[in-house]
Write a structure and sequence with these properties.
Blueprint: H1 13-33, H2 35-44, E1 48-54, H3 61-65, E2 72-77, H4 87-102, E3 107-115, H5 131-148, E4 155-163, E5 168-172, E6 178-180, H6 192-199, H7 205-227, E7 240-244, E8 256-259, H8 267-282, E9 291-299, H9 304-327, E10 335-343, E11 348-351
Helix pairs in contact: 6-7, 8-9
Length: about 350
């Protein structure tokens, strides 16, 4: 279910900001309440699962796979565009993987792209709605990961398509074969282990066992979505530009454009996002009473870690404002900037 009301984009800016604050609070409360379920799940399925995905709010993998919050660690970026040659992204991702491997946990990296089976224009705007281009980018990232961790059998990269009309997953095997879960009903779930083994014969058995619950959950979830009449709102109505990390709570379509702090040149995605939001105003898809620039940085501990996160969030905020002033100055009078830090162990957003 969506956390947004159908009229959210039409509400005054102050009401939209209040909605956002409540959404963040509900997400943290749900994450804390799910601690026991998460620990029980990890005890049974210890594989660390990382997902590289687009900022699009429709790509809500925990919801689409019926997985407890906090099991799938997301890396989100505008357009789902990544390159492991980017210094910060490469360091961060490899540190996450190496830390898990040092703990004796295998790592499965889901490299996702998204598309719509019903209409091309509902595909990823970051690739001009071109599914083949989005898939090619995902395959390139898979090749980069395989090259880096070639000596380890405990790190596996899997390309996964996300069909946004039904939330069904499409798995791409190493030999070019595909497993499209939209073609299966939950009644056929006993076939999944054999199908996964055929698709990914080099995926270690323990990691296959830990991936299967996600696939089973997606079978049930996507089947339900196909039975229901869904409103497939394709119109851009974003009124937020988010820069940084810690935006897991924003799985709501057409609300925010989220830019991860990964690219060496952050000015380009900020420029692109600002242009989209300004066009939303010109087309009267959102009110011209305010646009939110939100910078967020996660931290693990109070003290030095939090204080540095505060400085980083302030930098992101000022950086984005400078880019917008230079590239889309017409947006600047409407811009209202906020910075925040997120206490990662509780996914708690703390406004500064």
């Amino acid at each position: 279910m969506s956390d947004a009301t159908p009229e959210l984009h039409q509400q005054p800016f102050t009401d939209r900001l209040s909605w956002l604050e409540q959404l963040a609070s509900r997400h943290s409360a749900a994450f804390i309440a799910g601690t026991a379920a998460r620990e029980a799940y990890l005890a049974q399925h210890p594989t660390k699962i990382i997902a590289l995905k687009c900022m699009d709010g429709r790509i809500h993998l925990p919801h689409a796979t019926q997985t407890p919050l906090g099991i799938i660690q997301p890396y989100r970026n505008l357009g789902g565009i990544f390159n492991l040659g980017w210094p910060y992204l490469g360091d961060l991702l490899c540190d996450d993987i190496n830390q898990a491997l040092a703990q004796g946990r295998p790592v499965l990296v889901l490299i996702s792209y998204h598309f719509s089976a019903g209409a091309r224009e509902r595909g990823c705007a970051g690739f001009q709605h071109d599914r083949d281009a989005a898939l090619a980018q995902a395959l390139q990232i898979r090749d980069q990961l395989q090259s880096i961790f070639a000596a380890s059998e405990q790190c596996y990269a899997l390309v996964v398509g996300f069909e946004t009309d039904s939330d069904a997953l499409v798995l791409h095997g190493s030999t070019g074969r595909m497993l499209d879960l939209s073609q299966y009903s939950p009644d056929l779930s006993p076939q999944l282990p054999a199908l996964l083994q055929q698709l990914c014969p080099l995926l270690p058995a323990a990691m296959q066992r830990d991936l299967l619950p996600l696939l089973l959950g997606n079978l049930w979830h996507s089947a339900l979505q196909r039975q229901q009449r869904r409103q497939l709102d394709i119109e851009h109505r974003e009124w937020m530009l988010c820069l940084g990390r810690g935006f897991d709570f924003l799985h709501v379509p057409n609300i925010a454009l989220i830019i991860g702090p990964f690219s060496p040149d952050l000015s380009q995605p900020v420029k692109k996002a600002a242009a989209i939001i300004l066009n939303n105003i010109k087309q009267q898809r959102i009110p011209a009473d305010g646009v939110l620039l939100l910078a967020s940085v996660p931290y693990q501990q109070a003290g030095i870690d939090r204080r540095r996160a505060e400085l980083k969030a302030a930098f992101f905020c000022q950086f984005a404002k400078t880019v917008i002033a230079e590239q889309e100055p017409a947006l600047l009078p409407l811009l209202q900037s906020r910075s925040a830090v997120m206490y990662w162990p509780e996914r708690r957003l703390e406004w500064l």
